[in-house]
Amino acid sequence: MKSLVTAEDIKQLHRDGKASLDIVPSCTIITPEARDVAKKLGVKMLEADTSTSNKPAVEANARQAIKQAVEAKLPAGKHAPALLEQLIEKAMRELNAPVPYCDREVAANGVILVRGGSVKFGRFDGVPDQVVGLTDVITAADNSSIAAGFMQWEKCNFPWTLTYDEIDVVLEGELHITCNGKTHIGKPGDVFLIPKGAAIEFGTPTKVRFVYVTYPADWSISK
């Protein structure tokens, strides 16, 4: 079982005044965003001696990291402990899956080009028992006040309360957003604005793929 290091873990280390993190490469998954944040904040990844590694401790660290990441994604006060535990267990089972990524070109002046066709999807941990793909491609680690990424899924609906402003641009299929009992249907080329605080239901009766843009970029710690 591998431990997971997220961007939030690196930020917390920095807030605690720590400048390094001991890792066991063969037992650790570091997300691309975590590496970007570590470089930006000057947090070094120090490879530990694998002969002294402890499997129970590694699993405990992974569980704690996953718990923090899941809690950051779920609306504050909107989830039951049982749901949180279910999401943690699901994430633990998926730790050995490939880490999502995308091809990016970064110019000296900060301009970033993301190759949409290269995006590999991870699993969105905010929706239990559903296969919803999500990959962040622009984050706060890019010195941006906004974030962006891709989502896709087929034939499912799920409720969500936004703690940030979001714009969704439909690329393929249909994106259904239901609020106040009315369903709004977006098709390729259509744009949604969902304001902070809105309680909605995302869904599609077929399939959907879209780009999302959120403000602020670090919405998970701006509640």
TrEMBL record:
Could you cite one Gene Ontology molecular function of this protein?
Answer: kinase activity
Keyword annotations:
Kinase, Transferase
Q: Which Pfam families match?
A: EutQ (PF06249)
Please give the InterPro entries that the UniProt record associates with this protein.
Answer: EutQ, RmlC-like_jellyroll, RmlC_Cupin_sf
Superkingdom of the organism of origin? Bacteria
Matches recorded under SUPFAM superfamilies: RmlC-like cupins
Q: What is this protein called?
A: Ethanolamine utilization acetate kinase EutQ
Its taxonomic placement starts with: Bacteria, Pseudomonadati, Pseudomonadota, Gammaproteobacteria, Cellvibrionales
